[in-house]
């Protein structure tokens, strides 16, 4: 008679071991998925910031080509004159800030009031975008000019005679309203008054 060799018994995985392995694998997959989502969001936000910068830069170049006295730099969209800084003593170190004293004392940033002596806000109204901190429409924050190009909001404000007389300070803001951008991409431009060259008079010898 032939003798059959006994086949050694092989041990498998228990149900608990399988469940533990699946749990560990699931945790790893979820971590990788979260990292992928964060990477996609960061890339999208970075692209939005880049595009916002392009919009602001384009608007700055367009404003740069305008005359100092152009309507778009002298009036807002409703036809109202832009803010004009007025100070009898523009040579003060604390230009635009009323120290409440008859001195040229310069105030630190911590001491600066929320509003200046002429009623202008501390930022001279240059930071108005039409939105509040919750990114909701706010009429009190209405900028001088605002346009919407798709998901991008482009706004700019003008203050005349800032930082010195004969200069207009323009600040352009662009915000991607479809993302979680909290702060717009902002560029500043200083535009000087048009210089008119006086004709030379003939001098008699």
How would you describe this structure to a colleague?
The structure is a single chain. The chain has helices spanning 15-64, 71-74; strands spanning 83-84, 145-149, 152-160, 167-176, 185-192. By secondary structure, the chain is an alpha+beta fold. The model is unreliable at 88-113 (pLDDT under 50). It has a domain at 40-85 and 120-192.
Shape: rod-shaped
Radius of gyration: 32 Å
The percentage of residues in β strands lies in 15-25%
Reading the helices and strands in chain order gives HHEEEEE
- Uncertain stretches: 88-113
Taking the alpha carbons of the first and last residues, their distance comes to 146 Å
Number of separate strands: 5
Helix count, per DSSP? 2
Portion in helices: 25-40%
Largest sheet: 5 strands, mixed
Look at the helices and sheets and give the structural class.
Answer: alpha+beta
Task: Report mean pLDDT, rounded to a whole number.
Answer: 78
């Amino acid at each position: 008679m032939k003798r059959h060799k006994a086949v050694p018994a092989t041990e498998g995985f228990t149900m608990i071991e399988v469940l533990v392995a699946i749990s560990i694998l699931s945790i790893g997959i979820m971590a990788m998925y979260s990292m992928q989502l964060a990477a996609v969001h960061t890339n999208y936000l970075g692209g939005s910031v880049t595009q916002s910068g392009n919009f602001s830069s384009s608007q700055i170049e367009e404003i740069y080509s305008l005359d100092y006295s152009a309507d778009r730099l002298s009036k807002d969209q409703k036809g109202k004159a832009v803010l004009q800084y007025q100070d009898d003593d523009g040579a003060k170190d604390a230009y635009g800030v009323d120290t409440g004293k008859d001195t040229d004392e310069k105030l630190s940033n911590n001491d600066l009031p929320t509003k200046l002596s002429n009623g202008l806000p501390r930022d001279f109204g240059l930071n108005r975008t039409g939105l509040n901190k919750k990114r909701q429409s706010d009429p009190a924050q209405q900028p001088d000019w605002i346009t919407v190009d798709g998901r991008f909001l482009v706004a700019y404000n003008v203050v005349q005679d800032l930082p010195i007389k004969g200069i207009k300070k323009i600040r352009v803001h662009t915000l991607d309203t479809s993302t979680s951008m909290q702060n717009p991409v902002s560029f500043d431009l200083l535009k000087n008054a048009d210089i008119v060259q006086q004709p030379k008079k003939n001098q008699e010898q």
